[in-house]
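Colleagues,

For the teaching module next term, I've prepared a clean inverse folding example: a structure given as tokens, and then the sequence designed for it. I'd like students to try predicting residues themselves before seeing the answer, so please don't circulate the second half yet.
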């Protein structure tokens, strides 16, 4: 992987593939860049895809003090590496981060978002509890709190997943759940209407009504926003379904 240095000195690792306009993938909670590999592969024939590890995940570094602005600066560093402007695709909480970055003034030409969760809901209120768990070394409890309170997974399913083979990987990056909660706090008044770039919001037919409603509400509030329902899809990205829609949107004049 290549690296770029963010404003606070944190190294951000990324994979770069393909040729064409720069497109940066911003992934959500629990995901490092490997979760975007399939989508990057499906898009690289039309774009130069930058698929990165957000701070605290994968091969990227971290810092003792976190703010959402630091993550926005990470994305800005990638945009500068990509030539100074870029298309951006965000998934889940990564989609909310992308919205914040666009409002912050980063040179993003178009935004593609997949199921941004509603900011200001329960997920944005659990930062103090998550911080307490991480400080006490209770990383597993932080993972389960986020799964139940932020994602809405049933408690019995969360309990069954305690011995899943991927559980240690989740606990390893549990401190980043504090970051996700910070990102998902209520958005400042006027932030969404201030984003005047073309924005496409995708949501799955089989996802929750909350995701449906949030996609439509955001699309209505964005000056150049629209939403599309993807038939048969859930919150998980299926590259064969999502990539053609993104290609059409991002390449349209």
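(Answer key — instructors only)
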């Amino acid at each position: 992987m290549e690296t770029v240095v963010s404003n606070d000195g944190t190294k951000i690792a990324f994979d770069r593939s393909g040729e064409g306009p720069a497109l940066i993938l911003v992934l959500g909670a629990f995901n490092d860049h490997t979760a975007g590999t399939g989508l990057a592969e499906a898009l690289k024939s039309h774009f130069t895809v930058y698929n990165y590890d957000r701070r605290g995940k994968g091969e990227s570094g971290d810092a003792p003090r976190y703010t959402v602005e630091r993550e926005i600066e990470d994305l800005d560093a990638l945009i500068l590496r990509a030539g100074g402007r870029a298309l951006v695709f965000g998934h889940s909480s990564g989609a909310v981060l992308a919205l914040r970055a666009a409002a912050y003034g980063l040179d993003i030409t178009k935004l593609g978002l997949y199921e941004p969760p509603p900011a200001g809901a329960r997920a944005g209120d659990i930062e103090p509890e998550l911080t307490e768990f991480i400080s006490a070394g209770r990383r597993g409890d932080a993972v389960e709190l986020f799964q139940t309170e932020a994602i809405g997974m049933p408690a019995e399913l969360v309990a069954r997943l305690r011995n899943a083979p991927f559980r240690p990987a989740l606990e390893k990056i549990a401190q980043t759940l504090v970051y996700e909660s910070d990102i998902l706090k209520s958005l400042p008044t006027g932030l969404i209407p201030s984003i005047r770039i073309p924005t496409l919001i995708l949501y799955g037919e089989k996802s929750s009504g909350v995701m449906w409603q949030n996609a439509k509400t955001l699309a209505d509030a964005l000056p150049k926003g629209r939403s599309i329902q993807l038939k048969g899809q859930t919150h998980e990205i299926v590259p064969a379904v999502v990539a053609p829609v993104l290609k059409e949107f991002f390449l349209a004049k």
